Amino acid sequence: MAAPVETSSPEHNEDAGKAAATETTRSYWRWHRDDFFPEPSFASWGAYRRALGETPARLRDRLAGRSTDAAELGAMRRRSENEMRRCLTWWDLTWFGFGSVIGAGIFVLTGQEAHDHAGPAIVLSYVASGLSAMLSVFCYTEFAVEIPVAGGSFAYLRVELGDVAAFIAAANLILESIIGTAAVARSWTSYLASLINKPASALRFHAPSLAEGYNDLDPIAVVVIAVTATLAMLTAKGTSRVNWVASAVHVVVIAFVIVAGFIHADPSNLRPFMPHGVQGVFRAAAIVYFAYGGFDSIATMAEETKNPSRDIPLGLLGSMSVITAIYCVMALVLSMMQPYTAIDRSAAYSVAFASVGMRWAQYVVALGALKGMTTVLLVGALGQARYTTHIARSHIIPPVFALVHPRTGTPVHATALIAISSACIAFFSSLDVLSSLLSVSTLFIFMMMATALLVRRYYLRGVTTRTHALRFTALLLVIIASSIGIAAYWGTSPEQWQGYMVLVPAWVAGTLGIQLLVPAARAPKVWGVPLVPWLPSLSIATNLFLMGSLGKVAFIRFGVCTAIMLVYYVLVGLHATYDVAHGACGGEDDDEVAADDDKKVAAPDVEKADDAAGGGR
């Protein structure tokens, strides 16, 4: 995106309306080089070579630099040139929660993990993963209420942990969006085939001339991605209405599964309850955790929410609480319908109903899964585009993808970027080889979010003393290190307990030390996570624990992909963000904008928030 048109004469500077009018005369559909790389570092090969020569100094600058709430709410949003429309309420967000989370995962993962690892104790796996997910939901909710912008975790990490940490999150978010959408779209085709009583690959075209694993062409997946992305481009409110109808149908299917399942339940199938021990329960929990994935998309819609301080807590916490209960009950139903050894790994509910004489129910289950995947794609198209929009606002990726369409009020370019990339992959393959990578990256981002919340509560530049900052840093490192130790010890010595006698007290000491020895630097303005620092600290521990249950292959792939992402950052993203941060793109320095916004915007907001909360800070 080219820099906003500015004039040097005082009379023009005073007339913001004329400046805005000049800006909006530019076409939304712009494809010049300067729209993709407006930064001086990319003006010529000579400029780029000079920028590369300054890489160490620029990297130190970006490691130390932090954004502010006001900058994210002000300067960053202005780079989209047009505002997203505030049209969503808590009702929309609640159903977006259902649509984004309840997909095919509950129908597929439950049978797989009950058969392989947990047995009937799959119910406890859902409880454990649900509690971990709820801890992350708490962290997301506080940030989304205080910084209601489209960037979600990227914006929050940029404020508290800096550009480099935010970039790692951004790169993983975009990769998750593209690969995840492709995988769900291909699954959509498979479930459609089962609904019409065909083999899973019957609706794909085999191309023997292509490499194995990339030769089952799936045009239906491409069409599904195109349709959901187009709807997301046209209207956020209209997408919400479609999601509400589709999610309501899905809830009816789930209600049928639960009621019909309990009618044919046999409590004796719950024995033995935990055939593979506690280790099997937590190994399954690490996998079924991703049946809860997608709730973070709701936080990205804060910029379009009418009343974020009320609607986001109701939408996020309300939907996730109900979803956790639904998952646990569905897992219990499946475990009571069949012995765990007889549960089918790939079509658990369909086979279970067939075993009790309700073979026709497989079509109801397939319909429910199909509806679920449709809403996952629909809500994903909304949330992923808003992540991408805010990432582009920072210039980590070309800023043309930050533009919001003046008529629809939606980020059309960003939506198209994710949709086209996903469709290209979905046409050839779902890239199953990267599925375990997505699990690690999701948990890693959630762990970073909990860390960022602790930093937000206990460190504030200009308020926290050096002594308290050093003390907080040391205690936070104790929490993270002991959590990693617990996860590693569980993975290497699951039958031993001696190590926990050291690691668990260390985690408790680190958390208690923050509570007693480090004064809080700020309080939430309107809505905050309760029991800080204990709940965020527990979120760090549970996310790292679940990461440790995934196996080394996932970590190797995560490490390789992160290394590739960091190469891009050093060669491109670092220099783009450095130029923007230092006002080298024809606009204001971010720090100056933030300071100005702090005076004009943040202070009144704090006063209003304090009034609403009864005097928060």
UniProtKB/TrEMBL annotation:
Which is one Gene Ontology cellular component term of this protein? plasma membrane
Keyword terms: Amino-acid transport, Membrane, Transmembrane, Transmembrane helix, Transport
Give any GO molecular function from the UniProt entry: L-lysine transmembrane transporter activity
The residues forming the signal peptide are none
* Transmembrane domains' residue ranges: 87-109, 121-143, 164-185, 219-236, 243-264, 284-302, 314-340, 360-383, 412-431, 437-460, 472-491, 497-518, 530-548, 554-572
Q: Which PANTHER family match?
A: CATIONIC AMINO ACID TRANSPORTER 5, INNER MEMBRANE TRANSPORTER YGJI-RELATED
For this chain, the family text in UniProt reads: Belongs to the amino acid-polyamine-organocation (APC) superfamily. Cationic amino acid transporter (CAT) (TC 2.A.3.3) family.
Q: What is this protein called?
A: Cationic amino acid transporter C-terminal domain-containing protein
